[in-house]
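Quick start: read one record
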Amino acid sequence: MTPEDRDQNEGDLAAEAGAEPGERNAVATEMAALRDVLLKADRAYHAEDAPFISDAEYDAKKRQLAALERQFPELASPDSPVSRIGAAPDGRFAKVPHRLPMLSLENGFDEEDIRAFVQRIRSFLSLPAHAPVEMTAEPKIDGLSLSLRYENGLLVHAATRGNGAVGENVTANARTIADIPQRLASPDIPEIVEIRGECYMSHDDFEALNASDAGRSFANPRNAAAGSLRQLDPNVTAARPLRFFAYAWGELSGPLGLTQMQAVARMSEMGFRTNPHMRLCHSVAEMIEVWTGIEQMRATLGYDIDGVVYKVNDLAYQARLGLRSTTPRWAIAHKFPAERAWTRLEGIDIQVGRTGALSPVARLHPLTVGGVVVSNATLHNEDYIAGRSADGRTIRDGKDIRIGDWVEVYRAGDVIPKVADIDLAKRPPGAERYEFPETCPECGSPAIREEGDSVRRCTGGLICPAQAVEKLKHFVSRAAFDIEGLGAKLVEELFRDGWIAEPADIFLLRDRYGPGQLTQLKNREGWGEKSAASLFRAIEEKRHISLARLLFALGIRHLGEVAASDLARHYRDWDALAQAVDRLTPAAEAHRAAETAAEAERAAAARTGRRARVAEARSAVLAESAISISARSAWADLIAVNGIGPVLAMSIAEAFSNERERAAIDRLVSHLDIQPPEAVSSESAVSGLTLVFTGKLEKMTRDEAKARAEALGAHVAGSVSAKTDLLIAGPGAGSKAKKAAELGIRVIDEDEWLAIAQR
């Protein structure tokens, strides 16, 4: 068909459609038929590799449908194949909360990790050794996670993973991807279906994109896919060759099957591409066999993968296993061995982190490792450079690392470049051992390595510019204050220019550099009145912050997101936490002295060959410490919090007792409205209560009981105290049951607990 014939044909269709109102039904029927054949052609071409019409015929039918939709927009369907291209830009991405969180996966790197994973499954579920645990195994696609929500079979929105709880709305862009059906094809589809999978780009398409004049060159297919999907103009996304594999789901109004295999097969019936290399395994040996086979075909797949994902096949087991804070218990990613290459070490730089840690970084002659140009690699710490582990064992046959060495570089888990080995035959004459600095390269303060610590740390604290700026970057990170528009790069610029030196300064930016001030944010390069106003508004919104986020944002050593949430749930209020920490400081100092004595005892025992009496050394120091009853009580209360041990407790105490850090914390808190944590469940009988489990549970494992209690809004402590509300005691309960009786705490057995947990 010539262009003239095509234009005439489209004009005839439009004229026919609009000539007589009575013919609208015929037009609607014609449009439905065109949509149907095009959708079937999409599935046949992209999902089944069995096209039944030529490309020219497909294009002609698509143009016919487009002409009718222009003439009769009210008859256009939201699942029209035409909407795959030419969609109007969003302008910016809206936030989309995930009804169910999009979690990451636990990683395993060898067979022992996988055996341990399977054993944890058995232990959690109390399964006997002979009971089979079926696992699915499938390639782990290296792309961008995407969630697709369908209502009554029609795609209503698409969202990226984002932070796991909230993603970005990329619906218009997702509609342009041929692998993503606009309407689900299978009968008896649940009213709500949320399909999750990976958006990716094939090797061939990636090479073609980089060879074209697309405006930029991407480092790898994953970056290309992510950049293409997050375009503001869907027309740009439509021009990029993106693909999609489905492998999981979120919210469902009805089941997809009883097993992972059944559910994935159902997704294929609905019109999604699923990975043909997915297999069912009945033992760890079979899992490793599948992993080995997929690794061997890795180079021929035509798309990037970085491992194999194992999932418990039985969905009832998955439900019982549940979720941790960031990963499901029923899945693990078995990563491939890191890819390796040799290059020359041209220098060693020292970076200083937010906790003062001096981290050595190898500066390498650039090389390509796993499709990515690598010019830096971590050297871990001074022991690693010297050829020994932190506990003194020999590594790399004792070979130290020197500037000028020819080194083998690998990317652990295909992500972080590291130096694995040295070729001594290529070591240049005169190469000298590397002397690790004993002073901070940023502020000149002494860099001390404490007993038991694997790294050397700057003692400069907030006077060290490197620590200060890293603490600020952590403060504004996504899991902390997450201030829109205030990212790591801007933090570095504002710190460098003297506009902010500590977190409290962020909340003074408007007063110091806002409207009416001689120096204003809007006058900085790249800024204007609207962007400045937006940042000030975003900062104001973050004055209202949850206690858990604030605690994590402080950047206290060892205090992660989970522990911060545990602390927030335990103390509920900032003042209560601060007062408790102030009271426990003497106890923390005594425990640090006790740990120092224990380390000295270990060292002395190692020198003399006698048995170390570590417990006695600790006890002697603690017995001699003049610690008040209040301090002892505060210490006991803190380490009773689930997940808070002596090391973290001492770290918290040190942060609050350091005069400069405490002053900075107090200045920050004066600008904030700190919100107490919300209970997980407000309707259960144990919501808000502190529970302790003791003895042997016979009908569910301890881990399962704890997970269930926390899901009901309870806090699970490790020891009995005056704050304990309920003790669940199984057979063999000992000192905890006795202490609960002394304190008058209610004690129930496992059957009573199950009655509560199943309400």
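Residues 1-19, 45-50, 85-91 have pLDDT under 50 and may be disordered.
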